[in-house]
Structure formats: C-alpha cells, structure tokens
C-alpha cells in the first residue's frame, strides 16, 4: 500500500497517528539541522519534517538527495505544527518522518510546477503532463468534470437518454470541411468524422426516443483561429413533440441549474431578444448584456447638418462610453488606430466629450453645435465625464465595427466581470443568409432548420425575409448554445434543399436516409447543441477554451506533446490503397 | 403544446381529465360503429376510442384515414375502460377522443413495429430509425444509458475525474491496425484514431491527476468478426500510487455496485484464479464459472494402457457432461463432427457413458476396462446418467478445443443462465507470448505492463516464464475488463521495448513522449479498461453487442442506413494531397 492518506486531508484530529503518504517533492528547505519538505499530490500539500534531534542521521542524508518533483513515499507521525499555515487545510500539522523511500527520481522540470509558472505556452504544451500538475490547470480539468456530471444529472432527471452516435460516418460537403478516414475494407471509400450528430439525432426522434442527449466529440477541418480546436465537445440534445417554447424552457432550466449548483447563483427568467433587436441594440447576435453601452441610432439627429462624412452613409450610430472623457487626445488617437486596424476595418469615428461643466467638445465641432451634441447626449443618456463615439457607414459593417469597439472598451473599463452571469436568448434568426461569393443563399443555422410557419409563404418570393424557429443561448457575450425547431416534412425539406442550391440528386445522395426517414411518421422535433468547451470556460469566468482541454492542439492542428500528426508507413498507405501527391 | 401527458402515465386517477397526447398509431381496430387506436410513444401505449354514439361522424371518418405509424395528436377525456388490460400501466383507462390531428403521415413500414418483428437483421439495420421504435431495441438503449450513468456515479464518488483525451492522435504500428486521418494543414502527415487512450492516461498519472476515467470511443481497423465493431466504447480507468490489490478492490466495487443497482444482486467477494489455473481447469482465460464441467487431467489414468491415440500425446484431459448419457449414438456422432469442424479443429474424442446401473460404455472399450473407466469417473465426479468426454493432443490446442466443447454443451444443457452472474478475477497473466509467425515475443497485454517484481530477473533468461501484474475481470465467460500495473521506470520500459523487438530509434519515435515523461517523476500507477458495449450486453443477460449500439456497422464495416463509407469529391482528395491507387 502506497499511502494511508492523501496529502490534502490530515489535520489536528490525526495528531499522533502514524501515516504513510506518497507524492511529489514540491519544495525542500534545508536549514542544516532541520529539513522541511512540501509533499504534493492532487489533493493538497502536507509538510514533512526531518531534524537532527528527532530523526536518524541517515534520514537527513537521504532527504538531501531529493530533488524537485522526485516521487517519494514517507511514513511518520502526525504532529502539531509550531507555526501554523491557515491558508491550507493541512496547515496545522506536519509529519515527523520515520521512513523515506524514493519511488522515482525526476530531472529538473523545464518550468516550475507552481500556480504562477515561468513556462511559456509552447513549452507547457510540450510538457503538458507537467503542466497539469499545476493547480490552475488541474482545477480546470476537475471543474470540467464537475460540469459534465451536473449536465448529465439534470438531463437524465428530465428523461433524456444519452445515446452514442457513430464517429465513422459519411462526408457531406455542405457546411464546414470534414476530416475523412480512408476505409481499408472498402477501398476508394472514406468515412468522415462528424461535425455534429445532427442527422443521427433527428433519426432518433423519428425512432421515437423522444429525448436524447450526448456529450460528444465533434470535428471540423477548418483553418484554426485562436481558440478553435479541430476536435471539440458538444452537449448535443434533441426532443420530439416540442415547440420552441418547450426547448427554451428545458435548456434555460439546465443553465439555471448549472449556475445554481456551481456558483449558487439564482437567475429568475432569462431575457429574450430577437435577432433584429440584438443587431440594432448591440450590433451583435451574441451581445454581452452585463453592461450597457447600447447602440443609439442618430440618423435623424446627425444627418443633413453639412457633415458630408455622415450624410452619405446608410447608418449613423453611436455608443456612450462611461467615464471615458478621462481619455487624453492621445488615448483617443490610439483608439482610432485600433478601430482602423484591418481586423476591425472601420474608417474612423466622431468623438464627443461630455465635459464636467456640461459642455461638449467633439471632433466634428465644425458641423455640430452644442445644441446638436446635447440632443445626441440626451438620446444616449450620456452623463458628465462620458465619451460618445459615433460611427457611420453601411449598416451591417458599421454595427459590427461599433460592436467590436464596444467590447474592447468594456474590457478596458473592466465591465466584463468574470463572476457575473448574464444569459440571454436570441430568437427569430433569419432562415437564410445571402452569400456574395457563391451568389446564393446559405442556411444561417443548417439546412434542417424550420422556417416560421407564418413566413413559409415568403420562401419563394422573399427568402431573405423568412425567419427561422432558431435560437441561440448567449452567456456573457458568448454563444454557448444554438438550436432550432427542425423541418419534419419531406416536401418542405426538399424545398429547402432546392433553395440552398442542391439538385434533387445531390439532396438524395447526401441526405437520402433522412428524407426517407421522413416518410415513415417523423414527429415534430427540435433541439439545441452547446459548445461544451466554451460553456465550461465561461462558467469558470474565463474565455480561454484551450485551458479547459486536457490535451489541446495548437493553431496548426498539431499536438506538440505527442508530435501528431506524423508520417505513416508505406505499408499503411498501401493497405488503404492511397498515395501521397507530391506538390 | 403537443401533449399534456405521455402515452405511459394515465390511469384511473386521471379519469374525467381532458388531456392531449401525441404519438404513433400502433394498432387501429375498426368495428364499424367503434374505432380503437393504440397510440404509442417512448413511454407506453394508451388506448383511444371513437364511437358512433359519443363522437362526431367526422371524427370517425378522419380516424379511418389513419394508417400504421401515422403521427397524430389527440385531445379527449380520460374514461374508465370497460375491459381492462392488466398488462400495461395505462390498461384501466382509455381516451374518448374529441379532437384528432394528423401531424405526419407514414408509408407502410418495411417491417412491423412490434416486439417480435417480421424484419430480418439487414432490413432492420437499413431502417434502424424504425427498428428503435420497437421496445426491445429502445429498452436496450435506455439500459445502456442507465449503466453509463451508474458507472459515472460510482467512479465520481470514488474521486475519479472524467477527462476527455484526444481522438486525433498519432499512429503506432504496434498492436492492431489504426484508422488514419490525413491532415490537410500538415500535408503528407496523418492523425490516427486511438485504439485506446493508454498513453494519455499514463501521462495523466505522471501529471498527478491520481484517478482518471473516461467512457470513450476507441477504434480498431480489423477484419471484423461477428460482434466486433470498428468503433467501440471503453470505460477507461487509471490510478496512481496503487498496487494490483487496490485496483481489484475498486473495480470489484464498481461491478458489485452495478449488479446491485441494476439487478439488486449482492455478490460477496469475487473469486480469483491465476491464468495457469484457469487454463488448467477450464482451458480458457475467461472461464464461465456459472456451471461446472471442469477439466480433469487423466494422464496418469489413461496413458500406457495400449491406446496409441492417447499414449503419444502431450495431454489427456476430459470433462463430465451431466445427464448427457441421454444422447443417442447419432447425437454423439454429430457432436464429434462439431468438434472436428475447422473452427474447433479437434481430431475427435473418446466418450464414456455412465449407465444407470453403474456400468460404463465407452468408445475405447478395447483399451480401457470397467475399472479404468471407474477411476476416470471417480476423478471427474461423474454420476449415473452422465457422459464423459476425453480429448488428447498438444496441451494448448486440446484445452482450447475442449473449452469450446464445454461452452457448447453448456449452451445445449441451458447451464448459461442469463439472469445469473458469476464474476471472476483472472490474475498473473504471462507478460509475453511467443509469436510463431514473427519469431519473437509479443506483449500479452501491452508493452506498458509491468512484470511481477519477483520475475524481473527472468526477463533475459526466460522471458516466457515472466508473469505480469495483469488481470482480467471475467463475467459469465466474457472478459469484461482487463488491465495491469504499468511500468513507470524508464529503464525497465526501454528493456521491455527491446524485448519486443523495437530498436531504440523506433521506441523513441513512437513512445518518446512517454519515455520522456518517465524522467520527470512518474508515480507508480495502473489501470483497467472495460469493454462497455460488452459489459452492457452481459449485464442485460445477452451476448449480442450489436443490439446495444444505436447505429452499429455490419461485418464489412458499413453503416447500411447512411451508406457509409462512400466516395468523396476529387476536391477533397486534392486538398488533402492524396490520391487513390487503382489496383
């Protein structure tokens, strides 16, 4: 037996007991006549003591051979500490070591195993097995486990059953790019890894399973942006015989349950906002509503005042940044540069200081009188000491740019509090979005999303105006879940594929099994999927998904620890009947 | 709202309530003046009634348009049934329908949606979404969900944390064949799908996570035998600072917990048997101990009696089949043919009838006297009416053949009772097995398994005799779990790779990250993995794994429902920089 206790559990009630502990040497302090060791395991740290007075000399000698991260086993007596450490649960005791065994040695780790380490991200990823010895990383993985357990508990209690859907499925060129897997037994053919179990969960609804969920790995072969992983985890859910309202209630319930069980936070009823309203008020379909700085349209107040830059544009819209009159001229210039970066792409903005004496000072003083600016301030509810920022341009672009600025300012003003949680349902998404490049409509959610019944008549005449029974759950400015009521009528589904530019043959080849299934009594159904990696990080007050993944990949899709992907043997290629194309 | 209740919950306490139900038309009986409909959903069946006396004529007309598996929504009053059905929870009531709406029509299904269907396996797999409407299939999926929940509960309560390991990893030619995934971002390189998260779980132990588990999909590109799936699910577990005994206790606990929570069966302490003993007593390292028919070696009794067929063989071994003296001469001949089939490959056997009068009759009467046969009977504990069957040959082959016969006879005698559970630990497996084909040793479990410390000295001199700290959990003749204490010493691991024929370079290239990790304070650790698909089926009293998988693949690795794998577009191949090799 390697231990009688863990390093996190001994306290004054154990004094005089003889115990055995195992763990890693975290810190060793050698005062000559006395040696202290902080022994660490997953559960905590326990102080070991060896001294000239009470210990055999051989023990002191042995202790002096120990290095950081050596794995040792000790037996000794629990004694009360002279100087107690109130910051750790074991801080009132220490172990007077009687027996010490080195279980394994350790080279000096490439970075320190401490909460604040000296290791950079690259190095920590390469030695991820050492990184996860650190509390911040370990605790994030435990947090993730706890959230997963709570999700499963809630959904199971609600009658959902978790069903595993296949990982080796069929490639569908619609949507993002698939990872594919050559089939040795079926040469020339490939499986694809699922981007989501979408069609399987719909088939399960046709199959009468009624309430399904799964915490499941999904795959997308996309060029990786920061915090996008080629493999990611979803909480995938589907329900039959439901309307949108039923789904919102169940998953609002899930989110409330998680906030309560994890943070002991009660939230009454989640606010709801249509897509149009979210875009108008926040320029964003996933607004962070923990803070204000809402958009205010100024077309009626700022147009036709001789300011050519505004006059010719589709939309004039501004936000009021609280307390930001504190910005110097230089600060504002830098902010201007920030919005002009290619990532944001704004041409610029007009700023208006709201001075302490109630006067205004703006970058367009030539065109707008004190009175004009006062009318802007009134609309925006600007207070003394605030800074108004106004942009103009094409409506969609300008909203997007101003939204980016709003989020940036909120970061700077520390308005995005990690321990505050503001969920929001965004509903009534457009069914389709026009894609300039391909010159056709794309499904905004996916091709299985149902149009609102009252908008179906517009499918042919004005497809762009058709709204969908689709909804997103937004938490603190992040989309944590999205879903829709599905089409369950074969005819409507065919019409939808046609609208999306599928020929009848393509639709049959790729989704024939679903279309066939719809002929055999498909019930009304709908569902939602949560990005689990993101949900976990947001619930933990972070937005860095990678930290919550045990073995993440870097931005080139590489696992730098195991060095994958890698070349494979020619025999493997031969068996698969494929060859590499030299470029 | 589509329903106020499900089809499984209404009873006499709901009489006179007006309810709305949705579901599938399971059965429709039209007596002319009265129509009954069995409405089905996941939760049960509720009888609907429409009659000339109490219902509007339009309703009867509408009901007559319904076909099997139509999806309907009805509103009506709960009334007490005249003739009750005690076999279903809703059998005391029916719904007098007031409103009927067809939500979706259905073509006639290709097989009947009933517990005993007329559909063959092929057809049912093609229309799996209809198959899972049937109770036996649906209930198996719900059972699987329940087992998964219980497993997670037990392990979480024991301090295990579930960590998701990557699916896109690196190919290692050792072991079974990998599925590979070409990397578009790293042309010419491939990911592999994991055959198990083995190295990752060991790295997590190096990382101090202490207790890890995961219910996880694994992948093996093998030619499929019956009931082998290219993707399958494991309960994967690992613990640090443990000896074999600790692991056996924890996972004996898990199995007990499952038997108790699922079947309310208490099992005291699981028996243990060494590999050698299991082979000697049952000819099998996963013996079904629900019944006897143990092996008895007869070398000392049956050799040198002039029977040449036995005399020259390595092993003479028999079993006693209870009551099987009832077999006619013809039955025995057929049994002889059965063991001579190529799948079994035995040359034959000697049979000995134990007659009701205590005399014996054998197929080798010429060589063995009544007295000889009595000594055999005594050793085997044969009773009047039994049949002794004795084989001879090379020890290993003969044991395997006799084991197959033992299992076959147990099936015929109905000794393998599905509601009886007999777990067994098999321990002390050999570390290595000699592979004739490659002329070298292979790891019996895997290359990370630790030899027993007392046998390490034999690693060089007599590798075949080295026993491993490896163990299997056997349930009802099936290996449901297997694991080992791992090597955590870099030197020993190198030695092991060498023994298995790896060059130092190969070992470094394939497992370098693990070898490196062992330099930084690897703790003693070990683990186990359960085949979850098999565990679930055995716990449910079945051995047909495929029934417990929602969307299984056939023996060619195909999903016949979605028709995967399939050809992919040339543009996909081009992006991946691979091409098909025409053979």
From TrEMBL, chains A, B:
Assigned EC number: 6.1.1.12
Alphabetic keyword roster: Aminoacyl-tRNA synthetase, ATP-binding, Cytoplasm, Ligase, Nucleotide-binding, Protein biosynthesis
Domain of life, source organism: Bacteria
Residue span(s) of domain Aminoacyl-transfer RNA synthetases class-II family profile: 144-552
UniProt binding sites for L-aspartate: 174, 220, 445, 486
Primary location class: cytoplasm
Keyword Transcription: no
Catalytic activities: tRNA(Asp) + L-aspartate + ATP = L-aspartyl-tRNA(Asp) + AMP + diphosphate
InterPro entries cross-referenced by the UniProt entry: Aa-tRNA-synt_II (IPR004364), aa-tRNA-synth_II (IPR006195), aa-tRNA-synth_II/BPL/LPL (IPR045864), Asp-tRNA-ligase_1 (IPR004524), Asp-tRNA-ligase_1_N (IPR047089), Asp/Asn-tRNA-synth_IIb (IPR002312), AspRS_core (IPR047090), GAD-like_sf (IPR004115)
PANTHER family assigned to the protein according to its UniProt record, in alphabetical order: ASPARTATE--TRNA LIGASE, MITOCHONDRIAL (PTHR22594:SF5), ASPARTYL/LYSYL-TRNA SYNTHETASE (PTHR22594)
Subunit organization: Homodimer.
Name of this protein: Aspartate--tRNA ligase
Originating organism: Moheibacter stercoris
């Amino acid at each position: 037996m390697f231990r009688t206790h863990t390093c996190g559990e001994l306290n004054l009630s154990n004094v005089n007991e003889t115990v055995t502990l195992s763990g890693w040497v975290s810190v060793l302090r050698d005062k000559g006549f006395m040696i202290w060791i902080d022994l660490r395991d997953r559960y905590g740290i326990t102080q070991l003591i060896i001294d000239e007075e009470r210990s055999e000399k051989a023990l002191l000698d042995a202790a002096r051979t120990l290095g950081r991260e050596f794995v040792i086993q000790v037996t000794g007596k629990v004694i009360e500490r002279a100087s107690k450490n109130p910051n750790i649960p074991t801080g009132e005791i220490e172990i007077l070591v009687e027996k010490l065994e080195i279980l394994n040695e350790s080279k000096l780790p490439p970075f320190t195993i401490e909460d604040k380490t000296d290791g950079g991200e690259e190095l920590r990823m390469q030695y991820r097995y050492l990184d996860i010895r650190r509390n911040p990383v370990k605790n994030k993985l435990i947090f993730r486990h706890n959230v997963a357990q709570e999700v499963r508990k809630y959904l199971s209690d609600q009658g959902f059953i978790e069903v595993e859907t296949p990982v080796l499925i069929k490639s569908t060129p619609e949507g993002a790019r698939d990872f594919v897997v050559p089939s040795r037994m079926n040469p020339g053919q490939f499986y694809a890894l699922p981007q989501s179990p979408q069609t399987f969960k719909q088939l399960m609804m046709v199959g009468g399973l009624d309430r399904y969920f799964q915490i499941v790995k999904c795959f997308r072969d996309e060029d990786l942006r920061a915090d996008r992983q080629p493999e990611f985890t979803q909480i995938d859910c589907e329900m039959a015989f439901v309307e949108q309202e039923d789904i919102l209630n169940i998953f609002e319930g899930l989110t409330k349950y998680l906030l309560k069980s994890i943070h002991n936070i009660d939230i009454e009823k989640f606010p709801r906002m249509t897509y149009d309203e979210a875009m108008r008020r926040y320029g964003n379909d996933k607004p962070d509503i923990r803070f204000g700085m809402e958009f205010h349209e100024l077309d009626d107040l700022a147009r036709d005042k001789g300011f050519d830059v505004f006059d010719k544009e589709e939309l004039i819209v501004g936000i009021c940044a609280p307390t930001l009159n504190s910005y110097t001229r230089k600060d504002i210039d830098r902010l201007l540069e920030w919005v002009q970066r290619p990532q944001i792409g704004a041409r610029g903005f007009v700023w208006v200081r709201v001075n302490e004496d109630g006067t205004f000072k703006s970058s367009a003083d030539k065109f707008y009188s004190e009175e004009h600016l006062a009318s802007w301030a009134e609309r925006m509810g600007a207070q003394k000491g605030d800074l108004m920022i106004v942009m103009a341009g094409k409506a969609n672009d300008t909203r997007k740019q101003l939204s980016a600025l709003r989020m940036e300012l909120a970061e700077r003003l520390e308005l995005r509090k990690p321990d505050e949680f503001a969920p929001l349902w965004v509903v009534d998404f457009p069914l389709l979005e026009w894609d300039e490049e391909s010159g056709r409509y794309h499904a905004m959610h996916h091709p299985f999303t149902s149009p609102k019944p009252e908008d179906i008549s517009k499918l042919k005449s004005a497809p762009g105006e058709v709204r969908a029974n689709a909804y997103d759950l937004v938490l603190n400015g992040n989309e944590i879940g999205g879903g829709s009521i599905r089409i369950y009528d074969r005819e409507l589904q065919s019409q939808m594929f046609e609208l999306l530019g599928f020929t009848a043959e393509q639709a049959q080849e790729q989704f024939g099994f679903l279309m066939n299934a719809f002929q055999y009594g498909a019930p009304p159904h709908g569902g939602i999927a949560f990005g689990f990696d993101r949900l976990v990080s947001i619930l933990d007050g972070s937005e860095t998904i990678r930290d919550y993944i045990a073995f993440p990949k870097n931005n080139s899709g590489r696992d730098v620890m195991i060095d994958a992907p890698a070349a494979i043997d020619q025999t493997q290629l031969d068996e698969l009947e494929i060859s590499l194309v030299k470029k």
